Amino acid sequence: MRDGPLPSQLLLAATLLLLLAAAAAPARASVALAAAPDARLASPAAAPPAAASTSGAAGSAGSSDGAAVFRSSAVGAAGSRAVAGQWLVTFRVNTSDVKAAAAAAATASTASATAGARAASPAGVPPSSAAALQSARLRVQADVKARVMRSTGAAQGARVARDFSRLPVSLVNLGAASAVEALRADPSVASVEPNRYNFRQLGQSLPLINQPLAAAQGFKGAGCAVAVLDTDLGSCAAPGDPEPCRVAYAKDFTPLDDGAMDDDGHGTNVASIVAKTAPGAKLLVLDVFKTDKSGSYAMDSDILAAVDWALAAKASGTYNVCAINLSMSSSSFSATQCAGGAYDSAFAAARAAGVISVVAAGNDRQKGALPSPACVPGAVSVGAVYDRNSSSRTWSKCTDSAPAQDQVACWSNSASYLTLLAPGAVINAGGWSMAGTSQAAPHVAGAAAVLKAAVPTATADEIVVALASSGRRVTDPGNGITTPRLDVAAGVAALKAAVPPTNGAPVDSEAPTGSVSINGGAQSTTSPDVSLDITGSDKAGVASMCVTNAAVSAAECAPYEPFTVTKAWRLADGPNGYRTVFVFLRDTRGNTMAAPARDTIILQAPAGVAPDTTPPTGAVQINGGAATTPSAAVNLTVSASDPSGVAAMCVSNAAVSAAACAPFEPYAGLKQWRLADGGDGARTVYVFLQDAVGNTMATPVQAYIILQTPADAPDTAPPTGSVQINGGAASTNSTSVTLTIAASDASGVASMCITNAAVAPAACAAYEVFTTTKAWRLADGANGPRTVYLLLRDTKGNTNTAPQQATIQLDAPPPAAGPSPAPAPSPSSSPAPSPDPAAGPTARLVINDGAAFTSSRYVRLSIYADGAAPRTTRMCVSQTAASAADCPAWPSFSSSKRFKISGGQGPQTVRVFFKAAAGAAGAAARASLAALPPAVATIRYDARAPSMPQADMQLKAAPGPGSVTLSYAQAATDAESGVASYLVASSKGLAPPKRCVPPPSGKSQVRSLVRQPSGAAAAGGAGAPSDAVALGGLSQRTDYAFRVCAVDRAGNVAPGVTVVTRTA
């Protein structure tokens, strides 16, 4: 097929073939647009599987049934296919970089104009204008792409096969799985997805949607263009249409033009529906399908290329693209909106440019989920209804018995976040009769053009809100979900009422008003699962809402979701009592309610709750949302909500799946975290959330920050620290003891020297790697006091001038009668090896600075080996290799390494083997390296929070005037690492805090154990000691709720137990 405006010869031939009235060809566009490159793809495509079977009832001659549905899934899933070696890479573009680039461009433009030179962009354009920001975004986007491909891409042998200049996406050839993972680990890469095959299965209305009324009022979409991504167009209008053909441009976006105009009429039918709904709009026919002996299919990359072209056409002013129609869907379903990936970036870019992406919901009879790309947040998803009463219809998936007008088709997919319904069964257009959501979507795409032409200043969000708020509400009998059905005339009226005129009237700055009612205003409920009725009013239109069980500010409330008038909700957990639900409303102009609408109900729930199958929702911030950080050590703020309560989370520096993320740890609103190692640059943290019944997020929430490490300040201060013998015990009956060492230093504590005698720092001979625990032997001799001395040294070489020390009383029993023992070692000997040239080279491994426990599978290894260096030494780190011969890989030696342990709960042993690198100089050096023994260390992995049975904890509250005294038994148990401490959290009202947040948040306080347990499993249980905490400074005669949580030695925080009381 030929690119560009259609020549009159082609139009005339198509018209004659389909017995259409002669139509004048459109004028050739004066500005030629460069479409995405049509070069042959470098990697050979795998043979596509057979197309899916058709569904639906028979139509007229030449008809087919069902929407054009893409059948695709990720590589590795059952039945999936993708182009071998080709991947869609979505790049991350930082908003702060865009704003900085826009400001720099504005400064340069002004300076150039002042100097009398011709400015590169119009002088005086503010850097915050939409045009300036869009231009800057494209420049930054191109820079990010180039930078990644020069660094990570070049290192992995990657090559760009196809670029999409208006989107943060490129099609990249990658030769190995390791290259894919390397790109995914790059902080400037948001996602890496396979370039999938997409297969089609085949899939009156105007009066129902009040299109004739809108047209009679003059609203026909004139001045707008609609891009139809489909199977091309076999004619320029429906049979007998007297209007001139309105196809302004046509192009085949497949790498090899198959030359077909329309193989089965699907594209003709879809484009004709757009033409009828918006009779004044131009059509841009973008063929993304390829047909061969295997069937008809489209590639993700071809679809994205067409979207990219449409945005370029919009930006250049060649065509005023108002909407894009995608009558297609995949086999990957999501019960919630599927954020992330190439389609999400593409639709977001389109929405930012004022282009609405309309997507068919699909015909799979899914009544609780939508497929991709309809599930993408930026998509306007469309389901199908009957446009008139009909006799019973039997489809391949279901049967509709005598369906009535406006009844949702049984095969039409649906979910709580479905945007609109429109006629889709059965539609006659362009000489073809078809049924499916493929036919419903173009009604909405055409309507979007009509509304944009009616109110040219309206934003894409305002148009979507007007369409969704004005249509007749129709309930799907398959799931009870109510969704607005398209009404073009009502949509125009709603939009004209919402969008202020452009005659100098003030810009809307008023927030919406509204209300919320729980269970229709009932006073009480026996179930925490309730229904909310929400009203909202705003002259610009209510766009979104945030529902919460907590009294928070509008800025703190998350997430904001599309506004709906009904919503299923779960009240806050806890004992029976009052429950309040808060709702913030936000309009299309961004104005948000300062104070939420609210309603209160009394929960009188019996035992047992309804099953919950929905994963949590949430968000994460790094250092409170800061743009940069000088340190890799950061604080994460994780907000989350779920009907069953959020139980666990998994935090990662890598973009992995939920199944690959480890460990899942108890949910905490505040977590200390270390960003990925490496030099300065962008870092991303990913968080998966899991609720109390096991539902886990399919796509993580994520946050982004730039690491900018400042130049090292001079450090001349030595470390500070302390040492304890046997946990601070007063006496011991054995010279074999355990030392507990604490230390801190601005540059990091590197080494220590321990002796039984007081010596000067320079005289202490056995400096060793710093650890927090160490087995030690006290000085021999008669019973009496024994002192241990500790000297610390930091990474800059600063050493204590005076040692830390601890003393214990040795009270050993007299030796039994028998042979005289061997001479005892001198007091200076210790388990730390003394320098001994005859003993050979030594190696040592320390995990997490000598910590005994870890709750994360990712640990930090410190490796020390005599004579080892990166150029001369290779090492192998393994948990499974028993000897060097078992090692699969030998990277260069490094003194520090991030490592993922692979075993389950309990001790995890890591071994490091060494060998000389090929070409290492010197026979003696090679022999020394060959003689290095493996370094071995063990740490206990514990990802389970302590157990806290409510009855065993005996939590009680004694109120006083403006105070409460809590008492509880320290009965929590933890079999792996033992209970270390307790956290006490409080909140005003009847709803307890959802979790205990560790300090420094200020919302909790740490309670040390009354009696330190003697072993890992000794804390808690029967006979546990009691503790009491007095909390003052509270309001009098006010309800307060408290939560007490146990914390184990690995840092896991238990969900805790709660109590509610009222102060006197």
From TrEMBL:
Annotated TM spans: none
Residue stretches of biased makeup (Pro residues): 812-838
Composition skew (Polar residues), residue ranges: 512-529
Peptidase S8/S53 domain span: 222-464
Signal peptide positions on this chain: 1-29
Top-level taxon: Eukaryota
Statement: the UniProt record of this protein carries the keyword Hydrolase: yes
Pfam families per UniProt: Peptidase_S8
SUPFAM superfamilies: Subtilisin-like
Keywords: Hydrolase, Protease, Serine protease, Signal
Residue numbers annotated as active site: D232, H266, S438
Class of the enzyme per the UniProt entry, highest EC level: hydrolase
Keyword Signal: yes
GO molecular function, one term: serine-type endopeptidase activity
GO biological process, one term: proteolysis
Entry similarity comment: Belongs to the peptidase S8 family.
Name of this protein: Peptidase S8/S53 subtilisin kexin sedolisin
